[in-house]
Every structure is written in C-alpha cells, then in structure tokens.
Task: structure prediction
Amino acid sequence: MSSAEHILSYAQTLRGGGVERALLRLAGEWITLGRRVTLVIGAPDGPLARELPDRAKVVPLGSPDYRALLSLPRHIRAQRPDVIFCAGSHYTGVAAWTRWRLGRQTPPIVGKVSNALVRPDHGAATGLAHALWLRQHPRFLDRVVAMTPASAVQTAAMMRLSPSLIPIIPNPPARPMVGAAPLGLPLPPRYMLGVGRLAPQKRWDRLVTAVAAMRERVPLVILGEGEQRESLAAQARALGVELLLPGHAADPLPVMAGAALVALTSDFEGTPGVLREALSVGTPVVATDSSPAVAEIIADPAWGTMVPREDPAALIVALDRWMVAPRPEPVTPPGNDSAARYLALFDSLMPA
Result:
C-alpha cells in the first residue's frame, strides 16, 4: 500500500478560530513526520499567521470570502495532492463542491466533524434542511472523523453511517508558545475567563448576566473578536460588570492558568477545545450542555460543572462554587498521537 505523501487542506482566514488553529498544529506535525502539506487559504493574514508551519506551501486566494474557496478544484488539479483534509464542519460545502467538479479525479477527502450536528438556533424548516444535508456527507467524504466517542455516536445517527466507519481522533493539544505577543491590556489579579468568538453562538451575554448576580463579582475577561463586542460592552456597563475584551491571544494558555475559572456558556458547540486547554493548566471549568462532548471532557466532578443551557440559576451556583472550590490537578489532554493517526487513516485510503 502506498502512502499519502502530499496532503492538501484549506481555510478561509487565519484571523482566529479553533478549527484553523488545530489545522495548523496538525499540518506542522505532518511535515515533521515527513509529509508534504499544501494549505489553500482565502486570506493568510491575521493572528494565526505566525503559527503557519515553516515548510507548508501556502496558496493564498486573495479574499476571506467563503466563496473564494470554490476555486479549490482548480488548485487541486494544479497541486495534485494525494488526499484532501476538510478541517471542520464549516468547510464541508467546499468538499461537496470539489467532489462534484472533479468527479472521479477527486483525491480521497477526509472530513472532521467540528461543530454541533443538532443546532438549537435552527427552526423546524432549517433543522430539517440541515439534517438532510448531513445525510449527504457520506456521498462526498471518504471518511468522517469525530473527536470524541459521544460525537461519533451522534455523527453515525445523523449521517446514517456505521459507527465502525467513523474514526475517533481528538485535536492535538495546544502547546505553550515561546515569544507569543502579550495581551493588549494588563490582567487584574483575580478574574474569570471566557475564550471564543464574540458571536451569538457563544452566548457571552448569558455569562455577563450571571456574573452580575454572583456573590463575588470579579472582572470578566473574554479573549476573542467578533460582531458582538459593542453589545457585550454595553450590557456589562448596564449591569455594573467589569468586562475586559483584549481581543485575540496568541497563546491563551498563560491567561487560562491565571484565571480563577474558565466559563463556556454557548448554545451549541462541537468538541470545545477551550475546556481541555483550561483543564490542562489546572483551571476549573463551568460549561453549558452545548455538546455531547462537554460531559466527556468534564469527566470528573473535581474538574468543573456542566449546567443546562436555559438554567441561569444553575449557572450562577456553579460559578459561585468554583470561585472558591479547590483547583483541580492539571489534566493531560488526549491527542499527542493524533497527527500520526490521521496519517494512518490517509494512508489506508491510498490505492494498493
């Protein structure tokens, strides 16, 4: 059996995002393990640009617009990769387009499930359309990868696949970054932390409201950027919450290690890496039941608490508790061998 010597993947931008950050980690490790990697990126600028592996070939498209990625079939013809890696659920539409355009000339496509398959923000019609879309994925993806066992079970049900056909490969763990740029503002001695895009999905408004009702009101720091920056700042001012929005952090691990706790109050998630990153530095977590993976990550009650999304009282109780409870011991995250496991999967799809 031959091996997948040349891997091609793609992304919109490097302006932030867990999917893109995990892709860059994997790409760097694949290169270290002796493979070639080509990254087709709409706009390869932004905070994550410094994490680009030195020996990766970058093909810029000149636009961060998702539609720019529809040129991917042309670049696949030019680059001639052995396998295509679709790094997250957001990008499966491009994978489907590529399969349709290239037909039998399409290299094997491996897609990773990175976002929620059941979306509470969808109405009945949109939810039905989304379910029908998920059922089409086995038509254009040669393998679908889940990051946790519970996510694999949900993926099998939604895509009507046998669980035996869904490899479980976690994201590689975050590593401390030497020489990372500092935050744009100083941190208070004691603070609560959120990490993620300032977007409706993350429901930071839910967290700001809860902080206003806590017994101990500490500053809330949220790392990330997005369209809700101004509305969150206004909400915090109205509630008397000290909210710090320093933007994107080149290396969030030291900020997590200094936090009293890390909170994630999303309506929906895939496999939230921020929880594993916080636990890896011994910081407790409080999270909503935004994904089947959350209960798997908070596997020990000594590590944190999962609360129902629509239970503000339970959220306040959990936040109050972990502001004074003993910190957990650091939890070693999975995924140290993920790059090698992906390569074994890619190689298994090569012709004999």
Summary: The longest strand covers residues 6-13. Residues 170 and 224 are 23 Å apart (CA to CA).
